[in-house]
């Protein structure tokens, strides 16, 4: 297990990084209008693997190259029949099972939920009391009320001049308003384009123009960033705003009421700023300035403090409340989408350059959710009464899939209070039945619990450790029950479960690897049904996931029932499906959940989809016994050393990150050198403790001085070599030297993407001189030409 002293320091640093690097090179020069060519939004997508293999149809907004160009870029995976796991003999799933087999779109999913669970809890939030403290309960909107507000918002969009087929941006942290606008887009055949709330003005400008958004919904927290780029976004005709924090206190609401009259004037100004382009609508608020709806909107839907539009911007700036009132006065029938219509364009993180927009149809998203639902059903019945805590960014495909699953089962969706550092407090109040999270969240839980055990009484510590060792051994032996008496189970781990509300019975983790120690911790202390999955946006989300009852670690499970997986030969990198004992190669995916391609990027599409419809993920994997898939690296991350050996940096980074002195680590190399070098951000607390133990002089130094201290560099290097030895790394995989940097990798300094992935190309350039200095200091080392 990881040392408890670290106490979630790695997660803390990641959570503090919010703003991305400026993307000026992707934008037009000052004063130059960006080119915004027309593109069709109603992209069609075939839904069977057989149709995908024959090639996809072209249209005016196609993101798909012709078959000939695809074949030049990629070759289908070899020996597909021999590679296919035998666990899924049934045809690939594209729909939910009874009674929802007719659900083919996200709109159908909402309609089914509203019809089956009208009076059940749907969307929930935490309110604040008069002193601003969060209440210890959630307030709820039912499915019937949510569908009613959805219709009002969708009708309001049409009345405001946003027709079906338009692009609707969603720029906010997770909240009911985001979900309701997304549902409105689905009901009226619009395309939602999520934007991470951590994105800055230039990244937002690029995505808006590339996706040609006609409207953007955003919170007041990010409104200034949106306003800063609107002058360069000519396609935007409407901006819909809500409060950044839904649970506004009465004190805050009273303060907002004082500006009501000025807000009404602002709305009138915004609505009439360019009448030639946006004809005035008959929709308006009532005489009192309020709009009365049958279903009450979530708090914060009518912000009073809206900023003035920049001069020269010709679009409307309205509140969510105003938009709903407009739709109430002019209700419109639904414009249901077809399964092949585009549901969303999700922009990837852009680790190697400009973000790419993955085009996903309604059929893609339903197929992936259906595949996940088929596995969740093995954990028992799900339905009203069960709850889901929504805190992973809705701009990420992982949480979008979770939302679709929750709608399918009629789960109550409770939103976190806005501060990820308090997510466990939100969980204790909401008491979720299932918890979907990324490893860094579970790492934080692990560190906090282990630190508390260490600081507790000797009796409590011995009880926990004895019960933990016994249950972990039982799980390793394949006994999912854990083999503990119920009383001992409750005494040893009951307090840990209560941190998450005490009702969690299913947990999944994905988006990045989780350590075996943390996954075992979840299974021992929370629920044996804690599994690791693997997926990507282009596959509709999940590709493979661990099965209930499988208590082994170190793999990402079996393929989902909605997709087939094969490995493609990588002879240049030494990976082959003929390798023994485990066939290895690039992971390829095909099925009804796989995307159509990248928006307005045929070359990028050709590099991802081959002539037979296989998505080449860029991940290198190997088949384990039982059809389990294990990921071993990224194809594009590999680098070659002087002796011809290829190094997988992500695998090495996972090993070196176990060092108690390491907060973040980046492994790089040189084709003229025989070993890699590590760029390390030390854990400040751990390095300060080392300094205090080894020298009073070091103790007085700050991080900048410590990182330049040769003794500290040597200590970190020695710790990494110890981890390499314990993990059994090859000699050429052990780092030859270390560069210590005091500033953590972050979105703000351009080294991380908004999804916390390392921008390796940027990191190589940033630390090139320091790495070369390390190589030059090695005995007999040749200076690289790079």
TrEMBL record:
Ranges annotated as biased composition (Low complexity): 251-262
InterPro entries noted in UniProt: AMP-bd_C_sf, AMP-binding_CS, AMP-dep_synth/lig_dom, ANL_N_sf
Top-rank taxon, per record: Eukaryota
Region Disordered, residue ranges: 50-74, 251-303
Gene Ontology MF terms: ATP binding; long-chain fatty acid-CoA ligase activity
AMP-dependent synthetase/ligase domain segment(s): 125-599
Record field: transmembrane: none
Keywords of this entry: ATP-binding, Nucleotide-binding
GO cellular component, one term: membrane
Residue spans of biased composition, Polar residues class: 263-288
Reaction(s) catalysed by this chain's protein: a long-chain fatty acid + ATP + CoA = a long-chain fatty acyl-CoA + AMP + diphosphate
PANTHER family attached to this UniProt entry: AMP-BINDING DOMAIN-CONTAINING PROTEIN-RELATED, LONG-CHAIN-FATTY-ACID--COA LIGASE
Descriptive protein name: AMP-dependent synthetase/ligase domain-containing protein
Annotated source species: Tetradesmus obliquus (Green alga)
């Amino acid at each position: 297990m990881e040392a408890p002293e670290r106490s979630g320091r790695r997660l803390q640093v990641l959570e503090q990084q919010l703003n991305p690097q400026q993307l000026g090179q992707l934008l037009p020069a000052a004063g130059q209008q960006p080119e915004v060519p027309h593109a069709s939004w109603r992209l069609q997508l075939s839904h069977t693997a057989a149709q995908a293999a024959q090639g996809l149809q072209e249209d005016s907004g196609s993101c798909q190259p012709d078959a000939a160009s695809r074949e030049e870029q990629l070759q289908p995976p070899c020996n597909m029949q021999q590679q296919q796991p035998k666990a899924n003999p049934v045809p690939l799933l594209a729909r939910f099972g009874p009674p929802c087999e007719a659900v083919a779109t996200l709109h159908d999913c909402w309609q089914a939920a509203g019809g089956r669970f009208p009076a059940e809890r749907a969307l929930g939030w935490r309110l604040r009391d008069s002193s601003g403290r969060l209440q210890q309960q959630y307030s709820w909107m039912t499915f019937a009320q949510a569908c009613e507000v959805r219709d009002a918002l969708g009708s309001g969009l049409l009345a405001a001049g946003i027709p079906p087929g338009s692009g609707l941006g969603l720029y906010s942290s997770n909240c009911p308003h985001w979900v309701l606008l997304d549902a409105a887009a689905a009901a009226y055949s619009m395309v939602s384009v999520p934007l991470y709330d951590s994105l800055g003005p230039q990244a937002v400008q690029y995505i808006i123009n590339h996706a040609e958004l006609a409207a953007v919904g955003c919170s007041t927290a990010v409104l200034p960033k949106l306003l800063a780029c609107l002058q360069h976004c000519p396609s935007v005709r409407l901006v819909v705003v809500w409060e950044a924090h839904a649970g506004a206190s009465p004190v805050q609401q009273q303060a907002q009421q004082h500006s009501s009259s000025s807000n009404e004037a602002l709305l009138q100004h915004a609505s009439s700023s360019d009448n030639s382009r946006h004809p005035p609508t008959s929709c308006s608020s009532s005489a009192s300035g309020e709009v009365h709806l049958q279903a009450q909107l979530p708090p914060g839907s009518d912000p009073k403090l809206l900023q003035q539009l920049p001069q020269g911007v010709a679009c409307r700036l309205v509140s969510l409340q105003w938009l709903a009132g407009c739709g109430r006065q002019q209700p419109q029938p639904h414009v249901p989408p077809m399964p092949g219509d585009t549901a969303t364009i999700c922009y990837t993180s852009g680790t190697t350059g400009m973000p790419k927009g993955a085009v996903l149809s309604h059929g893609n998203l339903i197929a992936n959710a259906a595949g996940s639902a088929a596995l969740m059903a093995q954990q028992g019945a799900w339905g009203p009464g069960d709850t889901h805590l929504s805190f992973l960014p809705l701009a990420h495909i992982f949480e979008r899939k979770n939302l679709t699953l929750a709608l399918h089962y009629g789960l109550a969706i409770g939103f976190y209070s806005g501060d990820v550092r308090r997510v466990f407090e939100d969980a204790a109040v909401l008491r979720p039945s299932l918890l979907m999270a990324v490893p860094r969240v579970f790492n934080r839980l692990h560190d906090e619990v282990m630190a508390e055990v260490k600081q507790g009484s000797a009796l409590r510590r011995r009880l926990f450790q004895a019960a933990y060792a016994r249950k972990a051994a039982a799980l390793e032996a394949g006994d999912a029950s854990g083999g503990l008496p119920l009383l001992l189970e409750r005494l040893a781990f009951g307090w840990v479960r209560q941190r998450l509300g005490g009702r969690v019975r299913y947990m999944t983790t994905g988006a990045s690897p989780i350590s075996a120690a943390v996954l075992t911790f979840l299974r021992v202390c929370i629920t044996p049904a804690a599994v690791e999955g693997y997926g990507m946006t282009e596959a509709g989300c999940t590709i493979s996931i661990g099965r209930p009852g499988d208590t082994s670690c170190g793999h990402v499970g079996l393929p989902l029932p909605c997709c087939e997986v094969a490995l493609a030969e990588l002879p240049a990198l030494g990976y082959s499906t003929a390798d023994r004992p485990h066939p290895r190669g690039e992971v390829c995916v095909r099925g009804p959940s796989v995307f159509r391609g990248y928006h307005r990027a045929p070359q990028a599409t050709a590099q991802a989809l081959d002539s037979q419809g296989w998505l080449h993920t860029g991940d290198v994997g190997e088949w384990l016994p039982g059809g389990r898939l294990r990921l071993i690296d990224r194809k594009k991350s590999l680098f070659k050393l002087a002796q011809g050996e290829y190094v997988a940096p992500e695998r090495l980074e996972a090993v070196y990150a176990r060092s108690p002195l390491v907060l973040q680590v980046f492994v790089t190399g040189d084709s003229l050198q025989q070993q890699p070098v590590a760029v390390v951000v030390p854990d400040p607390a751990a390095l300060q403790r080392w300094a205090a133990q080894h020298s009073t002089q070091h103790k007085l130094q700050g991080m900048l001085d410590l990182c330049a201290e040769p003794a500290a560099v040597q200590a970190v290097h020695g710790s990494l070599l110890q981890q390499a030895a314990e993990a059994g790394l090859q000699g050429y995989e052990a780092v030859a030297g270390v560069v210590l940097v005091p500033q953590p990798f972050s979105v703000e300094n351009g080294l991380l993407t908004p999804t916390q992935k390392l921008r390796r190309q940027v990191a190589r350039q940033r630390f090139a001189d320091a790495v070369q200095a390390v190589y030059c200091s090695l005995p007999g080392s040749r200076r690289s030409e790079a």
